[in-house]
């Protein structure tokens, strides 16, 4: 049983083989791509529209007003043009554009190789990451910086936008999703192996029972001739 399982694992189609693409589920890929595109557009529009409606430029249009427009006990809005990145990667404008395009391509390629339905859970995470990278890239290309409009009233440590939230949400969603899926698959595999072991043990015990001779029957057969002999003795006399 173990050898056959190992042989099956070795025969799993690889990405760069004809067998993989021969068995490729194109219908599932198109469904995943449609979900990705719809989610991507929704996240991107949410980012660009909030910036357009909330962000206010200063008089010469070179920066945000840096003034608070609204504030409650949880969050507030203000206009800050951020010429760096949320994580301060130390990259120039060209480097940031390259990173953004790379992120978009990686997430798009990732959709192509999601062939298991349980991994479809990760599509929205990839779309959020891509939309976040695109939203900030558009700002850097048009304005030389990112329009940040939100801050937390209870912890005013910086200003951010929905694109930043998409990047953070997408990354956390993706990591948690991968860990969850791998954990579930691992537990299922362990359960399957235990079930196979129990089944194999039952089969072996049944085989042992069928091959063991019935000693009681042999003893009975041996005694029967003696009984017959004793019955025939008076008749012979």
From TrEMBL:
GO terms for biological process: proteolysis. The chain crosses the membrane at residues 28-49, 89-114, 121-142, 162-184. Keywords: Aspartyl protease, Cell membrane, Hydrolase, Membrane, Protease, Transmembrane, Transmembrane helix. The lineage of its organism: Bacteria, Bacillati, Mycoplasmatota, Mycoplasmoidales, Metamycoplasmataceae. GO terms for molecular function: aspartic-type endopeptidase activity. Belongs to the peptidase A8 family. One of its GO terms (cellular component) is membrane. Coiled coil: none annotated. It comes from Metamycoplasma hyosynoviae. InterPro entries: Peptidase_A8 (IPR001872). Residues 227-237 have a biased composition (Polar residues). This is Signal peptidase II. Residues 195-237 are annotated as: Disordered. PANTHER family: LIPOPROTEIN SIGNAL PEPTIDASE.
């Amino acid at each position: 049983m173990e050898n056959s399982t190992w042989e099956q694992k070795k025969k799993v189609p690889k990405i760069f083989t004809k067998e993989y693409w021969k068995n490729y589920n194109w219908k599932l890929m198109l469904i995943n791509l449609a979900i990705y595109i719809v989610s991507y557009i929704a996240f991107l529009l949410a980012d660009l529209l909030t910036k357009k409606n909330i962000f206010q430029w200063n008089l010469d249009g070179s920066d945000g007003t840096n003034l608070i427009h609204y504030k409650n006990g949880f969050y507030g809005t203000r206009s800050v043009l951020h010429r760096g990145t949320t994580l301060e990667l130390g990259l120039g404008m060209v480097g940031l554009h390259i990173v953004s395009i790379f992120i978009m391509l990686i997430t798009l390629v990732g959709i192509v190789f999601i062939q298991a339905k349980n991994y479809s859970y990760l599509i929205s995470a990839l779309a959020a990451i891509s939309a976040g990278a695109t939203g900030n890239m558009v700002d850097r290309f048009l304005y030389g910086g990112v329009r940040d409009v939100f801050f937390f009233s209870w912890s005013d440590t910086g200003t951010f936008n929905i694109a930043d939230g998409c990047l953070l949400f997408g990354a956390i969603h993706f990591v948690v999703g991968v860990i969850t899926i791998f954990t579930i698959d691992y537990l299922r595999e362990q359960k399957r192996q235990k079930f196979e072991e129990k089944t194999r043990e039952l089969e072996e015990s049944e085989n042992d029972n069928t091959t063991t001779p019935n000693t009681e029957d042999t003893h009975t057969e041996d005694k029967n001739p003696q009984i017959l002999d004793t019955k025939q003795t008076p008749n012979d006399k």
